[in-house]
Every structure is written in C-alpha cells, then in structure tokens.
Design a protein that fits this description.
Largest sheet: none
Structural class: mainly alpha
Number of strands: 0
C-alpha cells in the first residue's frame, strides 16, 4: 500500500509541476518559481507530521513538484547578470518565507 501511495503522490506532483510550468514565459520562469515556493510551503506544513508521512509525502509529492534542477538550468541557460541574480534571490527569499509560514501553521 505504501508503494501505491508513493507512486500516486509522485505522479500528482509531476502533473502539478507540468501544469505550473505552463506559466513560464521566455523572459521569466514564473511557473518554476511558483512550483518551488508551493513546495517549500508544503515542506513547512509537513514538519509537524510523523516520520513516515513526512518521508512519503515529502519525497514523492513535494520532491516531484519542486524543481531545483530546473532553476539551475534556467539560470545557466536563459538568464544573465542582473536577471539571474534577481530570479535566484526571489526564489530563495520566497522559498524560505513560504517554508517559515508553513512551519508557523503547524
């Protein structure tokens, strides 16, 4: 049963990320930013759960939703100078703030 839940959650996270990536524009990867901020918030919410739930939901659902490798790829391939620094800064600040908010709600 745990394997089925893991696979289902991983599929849901992947589908969610795919939908959010539709928000990406050539000049700004908004969908990637939203996916990562939502994932950070969800990880904060998971903090108060038991270990098994945290691992299964955190790795399967949130791991498949978050897109750190995509952030790095977008920074290397599409952004230069100030735009790259701004995107990275917004990603980090918004992600930490979202995780903090999730922690506060648990």
């Amino acid at each position: 049963m745990i394997v089925v839940a893991f696979v289902a959650l991983a599929a849901a996270g992947t589908i969610g990320r795919g939908q959010l990536l539709r928000l990406n524009r050539p000049d700004y990867p908004l969908g990637t930013l939203v996916a990562n901020v939502v994932a950070a918030f969800a990880l904060g919410l998971l903090h108060g759960t038991d270990g098994d739930t945290r691992v299964i939901v955190g790795v399967a659902l949130i791991g498949s939703l978050s897109t750190f490798s995509t952030v790095v790829g977008e920074l290397v391939a599409g952004s230069t100078g100030r735009a790259a620094a701004t995107y990275l800064g917004v990603t980090l600040v918004a992600g930490v703030a979202a995780a903090w908010l999730g922690l506060q709600l648990t």
